Amino acid sequence: MIPFHGRAFPRKKISASVLWSDWEMATYHQAHLRNKSPAGIYFESARDCDPGAIIHLQVQDIGEENLSKDPVQGRHARILWKKEINAPLRYGMGARYLVWTCSLCGTLLAPERCLDTEDIQLCFRCGEKIDTLPDGALKHGIAHFLTGNVV
To answer: Which has the closest alpha carbon to 130: 145, 112, 142?
Structure first.
């Protein structure tokens, strides 16, 4: 069997200014959006934020050619990871939206309306399909594919 290498969601490179704030939206910080996917974004900022924190994102200058069915404007997200980078914007951060799409069928989901495991969001219908699979290599492989890990 040939292993599949890839991510669950394709990343789209994008260049835009983004403002982010803590959950209360008291003070916004400037950052630069580098890429996005249906599940989240990667941005760089001079100010850091701890993984697990919930933030609010506000995109400023996405051109018409970059708009899609899933614009990033005005969304809450959770910081999943951060890294220090050697650039004027010292921190790179990955954030996952708090309104998700089902990892299998793509249905838009509110957080309370999905089965949220560690890294996979499934609607109840797709969750039941996965649950009916017997434990083993197939189920494990599907989980790795959906989390975006290299299989």
So the answer is: 142
Q: Quote helix, strand, coil % in the chain, to nearest 5.
A: 15, 40, 45
> What is the rounded CA–CA span in Å between residue 41 and residue 51?
14
Instruction: Using alpha carbons only, give the angle 107, 112, 114 rounded to the nearest 5 degrees.
Output: 40
* pTM flag (> 0.70): no
Beta pairing partners, 64:
none
Please tell me the distance from the alpha carbon of residue 110 to that of residue 9, in angstroms, as a whole number: 18
To which residue do tokens 């996917």 refer?
A: 37
Q: 10-residue block means of pLDDT along the chain (151 residues)? A: 58 87 82 86 91 84 46 74 88 84 71 56 80 86 67 38
Side chain identity at 76, as an amino acid letter? H
